[in-house]
Structures are given as structure tokens and as C-alpha cells.
């Protein structure tokens, strides 16, 4: 019997009860339809596994794992799975609640950055759902903006939902019916924790990292690690330091920035220990800033979602009762954690089950279509940043030197030897106010000026990170024979052709 294509399924009835109306999502292993239950008249989202994958027992198991996970996790901010089964034609399917709204990914793409306290209010219910999953031994493993849905209920109230438990892993005896592959390399690269990249055992700290990436992206408009190619990205996550939140988004409250950065510590034991602690610290940061959050645990939202067709606009701004002017900047370790076995993990390219550029199973399914104790403000603390001596032949020479040797100033060689132990690479920067830092130590090598000269080991390389306010940071690997390099940062919100 010929297997119908997704287009051929439109207008037909699946499993004698779901009338398929339109396609609302496609992914690598499945297609999502809007459907109506033939007997109840309820609108649902039906996710159907592609035929070629329905013949693979492991793919079927992973597909149905989502239903088993959510069936054992009863939470108002987790998408409901209503049914699962296999049709007469062999189609394996899940029926999920139909949501109206938009994904957090779409919101970030549209607005570039989200107001910091609005973001905290949006994500606290999702954190609560995630904590509930951890408490029964479930690790999500694929947290990203695509899998957070800003839904609207029948009254237009905003209800954030956590989606796609297809990569969920059980780490405790509380959950039954799960079997995950040992040593699997699963997830979306930009949001994967260092231990996921090394294919180590998943744990709640891995989800803490991924949500830290989500917060960082929504606050700054960029990812903490943004290499284009997956292998380079994974190596960067394992070995590089990221640009501090306040450097990328100076408007962010310092206490909130500190929470995000603590969620992105490379060693799991150095991270915020669990999701409940993350929630407590976010609430404490808001209270210290004088912001009254709207989310009160189990209390429902009373606001509508701005910017969604058919929804009331003007998402209310959080009530500000007082705001501290104190800004504390977290001091980060200059020595990043370098993972052992990274080369081995990256070398098995054929065994890596990752999604690049957001094309994961989670995207097929916006199963849906659409979007501590109080304390007084601490006294302001004046912190003096340590002065760093750049290892750059940077500023113009003193006037006397310039007059004495004008010819040498005019004719700087492309690559020159410095103290017989280093080479120099010239960087031409756009915008000219860009800052260049060593990606490993975060040492400032150049600040301002359209051209910098960076020392590079004669027999090695130097990795640098170039940043500028309102621009997307860029990383580069400098080698002794590079001579002159041009680096142009892309303004936030500007998409490549």
C-alpha cells in the first residue's frame, strides 16, 4: 500500500478520528497538522512521524518518549499530550493540545531583545515546569527559544508552555517506561552544555546551562557562543569564555546578569545548583531592583501577549516601586575549563545527532501555531576594575618619536617580529569602536581605533573575540602569516542575505 505524503493526508481522517486540515510545522522526522477530533469537535495538533522513520524502532521509541514524559508530568506550563497511537496505514502519531500564540524564538527574532523583567516574568512559569520535571527525574536536554511557547488561552491570557520532550532522559526511579542510549550526543549545538557535548550523563545542571543561554540571548540579542560551523561552535563552548552580559547589554540589571553568568559556568559544580535556586535568585534580583513581578507561583497570568495577531497589544510594563542604582559586575575566572576528550567527541561526526541552526524536531511542533525574602537595597559599592596592560602595539607613538622616524611609522610591515618571539597581525575593524579580547583569558588587546596590531605566537595561533555595543560579536583565529585581517561586525537585527 502506497504511503500518503503530508499533502495527500490533508482532508483525510487519521486513525478514524482526526480530520487533518493543514500543515503547521515540519521537521527532520515528523510533520505537524492542525486537526479536529471527529467526535468531540476539539481542535488539536497532530504530530505524525515520517514514514521512513516509522520503520526504525529507535526513532519510534524517541518519538513516543515525548508522550510518556508529559503524561507523567502534570503542569499547567507543559503542553498536554492527549493521545498517541498508530494508524492502520502504519503512521505513528501524537495528538497534542492546540496552542495559539508564538514561540520565544519568533519573539526574539522580531524584537531582538526583550525587556529584562518582562523576560523574567515570561520564563518563571517555564522554570517552574522544568523544576517539576527534574523533581520526578526527567531532564529535557533540548531547551531553546523554539521549545518555549508563549500561548494565549481562550480568554486571551498569556500562558507560557514548555514544548518537545522528545529528547527527554530519565535519571531517577520515579519515571517508568524510559530507555535512553548511553553515550548519545543529542541536542541543539548552540544551547548544549559542555557535558552534553562530551556525551556525558545528562543531569539537571545541563538544563540550567541551556536556560542560561536562552536568557543570555533574549537579554543581549546574541548567543554567548556563535560560531557558524557546528564543530567550531562545540569547541568554543568547551574552551572559550563568553562576553559578559553587561558588555553586550549595559542596560541589564547587574544582579540579573550575574545569575545568567553563573548559569553558564563550564563546570556543572560551579553553576547555579538547580532550577529552584535560579528562580529564587531571579526573584531576588527583581525585588532588589524594585520590580514587582506578575508571576506569583501558581497564580494565573492576567495579561495579554503583545504583538500577536488577534491579541490585545501593549504587554504591561512591570510595576516599579523603587530601583537601585547599584551595578555589580561579576568577576569571571580568566582560565576557562578545557574539556578532556573534546577532540574525540567531535571526531565521530557520523554519530553526532545534533541540529544546526534551529532545525530540530522541536521546531516542527510549536504543537501549536502561534506566540525570596524582601531585603533593603544594599549600599552602593564602588569597584575599580583592574587595569590591564594590552599586549598590542596599539596607540600612535609619542610626538617626538613620530617626528624622528616618520618613514617607519608610514611603512608598518604586514607581519613583524616582536622581541624575536611573536608575530604581529593587523586587524582593521568595523565599527572603529570595537573591542578585541583574547578568547581564552578575556584580556583586552585593543579598545577603539579602526586598526589594531595583535601579537601572535610565531608557531601557533591566537583566538580573539571582537565586540561592539549594538553589534553581534565575532570570533577569529589569528595566525602568524595572516598579515592584515579585516573584521566587520554585523549590527543587531541585521540578517545576512
Describe the protein.
It is a single chain. With 497 residues, the protein is of the alpha+beta class. 26% of the residues lie in helices and 22% in strands. It has 15 helices and 25 strands. The chain has helices spanning 6-9, 51-54, 57-71, 104-111, 116-135, 194-197, 204-220, 230-239, 245-248, 254-263, 275-288, 342-347, 361-364, 399-404, 406-410; strands spanning 13-14, 18-26, 30-37, 43-49, 81-86, 92-97, 100-103, 138-139, 148-152, 158-162, 169-170, 186-187, 291-292, 319-320, 353-354, 417-418, 422-430, 435-438, 444-447, 451-456, 462-467, 471-472, 474-478, 484-488, 490-491. A six-stranded antiparallel sheet has the order 1-2-3-4-6-5. Strands 16, 17, 20 and 24 form a four-stranded mixed sheet that branches. Strand 3 and strand 4 (43-49) form a beta hairpin. Helix 5 packs antiparallel against helix 7 (204-220), helix 5 packs antiparallel against helix 11 and helix 10 runs antiparallel to helix 11. It is globular. The two termini are 43 Å apart. Mean pLDDT is 74; it is low at 171-184, 298-420 and 493-497.
